[in-house]
Write a structure and sequence with these properties.
By secondary structure, the protein is an alpha/beta fold. It has four domains: 123 residues, 3-Layer(aba) Sandwich (Rossmann fold), CATH 3.40.50; 152 residues, P-loop containing nucleotide triphosphate hydrolases (Rossmann fold, 3-Layer(aba) Sandwich); 81 residues, Helicase, Ruva Protein, domain 3; 88 residues, Arc Repressor Mutant, subunit A, CATH 1.10.10. Helices cover 47% and strands 12% of the residues. The chain contains 20 helices and 16 strands. The strands form five sheets. Strands 2-1-3-6-7 form a five-stranded parallel beta sheet, with helices on both faces. It has a five-stranded parallel beta sheet with strand order 9-10-13-8-14. Strands 4-5 form a two-stranded antiparallel sheet. The longest helix has 23 residues. It is globular. The relative contact order is 0.08.
């Protein structure tokens, strides 16, 4: 694996990040000066992810970001700064930063951002390689075979496609497959998660902006529609797009042209649109939170991805693949899984779908005590019998109402949760587990979010109201806990 590059003139910041990333078995290379980093790029060295300060004696992090993006457009860059002003945030995002990390930061949060950036980097590597090997979509189940047939039929079509399915089912992989099997395969595949970009930045992210259009817009920037010219634009989590941007997107789809923010020259759309959502868009239309005319524009052809519980026969094949891939990523020998353990996995509903199975296999690669995984090696919390172990990488499974409903059905009476929390905290502390506060606090907040969203059928505004928090807060918390993928 290529190293994570960290550049900061503050020795203490470099030291903290180096120690934290190396504890996660991630290689690190440190820099103190932008010129030193650019010299390394000139020498042919490349990072997996770049973590950069924004203000350094040798140059601006924003200027470094622009130069790095010019040389390696797909490289994820995380910008750090102690100057938490809007101009810096806007400049970082508009310059193409993967994420913005204000100082002082929580170390665990920083590591999680790096891991997310690594995932983004690997997706880019797969796209650039042009390979059609997408094992997450392996499957002989009839439901998946129908998906594959649909991808084949849609290959020569330019029609807009709406991909629906629960979180973790692989909607972006389907969009990528549709692109690769289309006449636009030679063009770019550009993806954007419309729920992950701050509302104030989403318009510029989609349509670009002219120089001076707003504070921090120091240069003209092409948006995703322009970047996808000749190829495919994938709009993920379209159901969470703000209403005012839904209106502009509708106009773009209707007229076939758009304007950059602050621009006066119309630009033609030359990209096939594929949208995806885990939301019930018909219900959101009835609630008035999604435009009906935009829904009909997007819903030209609908492709539904089945949850993993509807394709249980694929679980053994997927599990073996994810174990092999996790071993390659971590540089260890691949573990095998016993038939009894496979049978137990096959009978589990996997509310987080394929992503949850992948995370589980990554955990087993690190934590299973022997080379052959037995039923007793599976995490007990998966079956509702104990608290979860510390997963070394990504967060727990995404929020799904079925997950909460299943746990509710299993509980006949409320437990003394405070006593259970005290017991769990004592066990973890005595075991010397790191970051006990964060792990338990994240799980507590995650369960609150899961329960509220299950009761409201996924409606965030209503869930936020029930919890007594703001809509922006619930969105931010879901992103922080990794429950919004």
């Amino acid at each position: 694996m290529k190293p994570i590059w960290v550049i900061d003139d503050d020795q203490s910041i470099r030291f903290v990040l180096q120690r934290a990333l190396e504890r996660e078995q991630l290689p690190v290379r440190l820099f103190t000066d932008p010129r030193e980093l650019l010299a390394a790029l000139d020498a042919g060295d490349t990072p997996q992810v770049l973590v950069s300060d924004i203000r350094m004696p040798g140059g601006s992090g924003i200027e470094l970001l622009a130069e790095v993006k010019r040389r390696q457009p797909a490289l994820p860059v995380i910008i750090m700064t102690a100057y938490t002003d809007l101009d810096s945030a806007v400049g970082a995002f508009q310059g193409g930063a993967f994420e913005y990390l204000p100082k002082p930061f929580d170390v665990a949060r920083a590591v999680e951002l790096v891991r997310r950036a690594i995932g983004e980097s690997r997706r880019e590597d797969v796209a650039e390689a042009g390979t059609l090997a997408m094992p997450q979509m392996l499957g002989q189940a009839p439901a998946m075979q129908e998906v594959f047939r649909a991808i084949g039929r849609l290959g020569q079509s330019q029609a807009t496609v709406l991909v629906t399915g629960a979180s973790g089912t692989g909607k972006e992989l389907v969009a990528l497959a549709l692109h690769r099997h289309s006449r636009r395969a030679g063009g770019p595949f550009v993806a954007i998660n419309t729920a992950a970009v701050p509302r104030d930045l989403l318009e510029s992210e989609l349509f670009g902006h002219e120089r001076g259009a707003f504070t921090g817009a120091q240069a003209m920037r092409r948006g995703r529609f322009e970047q996808a010219a000749g190829g495919t634009l994938f709009l993920d989590e379209i159901g969470d797009m703000p209403l005012e941007l839904q209106t502009r997107l509708l106009r773009v789809l209707s007229d076939g042209q758009f304007y950059r923010v602050g621009g006066h020259q119309p630009l033609r759309v030359d990209a096939r649109i594929i949208a995806a959502t885990h939301q019930d868009l018909e219900e959101r239309v009835r609630q008035g939170s999604f435009r009906e005319d935009l829904y009909h524009r997007l819903n030209v052809i609908r492709l539904r991805l089945p949850p993993l519980r509807e394709r249980r026969e694929d679980i053994p094949e997927l599990a073996r693949f994810f174990l092999a891939r996790s071993a390659r990523e971590l540089g260890v020998e691949a573990k095998r899984i016993a038939d009894a353990a496979l049978a137990r996995l096959t009978n589990f509903d996997f509310p987080g779908n394929v992503r949850q199975l992948e995370n589980l296999c990554r955990w087993l690669t690190v934590m299973a005590p022997t080379q052959v995984i037995q039923p007793e090696d599976l995490p007990a919390d998966l079956f509702g019998t104990a608290a979860p172990p510390a997963v070394p990488t990504r967060a727990e499974s995404p929020i799904t109402p079925s997950a909460v409903a299943a746990s509710d059905d299993a509980a006949d009476a409320p437990a003394d949760w405070a006593a259970a929390l005290a017991h769990e905290a004592r066990a973890r502390l005595q075991a010397g587990e790191p970051e006990v506060w964060k792990r338990l606090a994240d799980r507590f907040e995650g369960e609150l979010l899961r329960t509220a969203l299950a009761l409201t059928n996924g409606r965030r505004a209503e869930a936020a109201q029930k919890l007594g928090i703001g809509r922006n807060t619930i969105t931010r918390k879901m992103q922080e806990l990794g429950l919004d993928d």
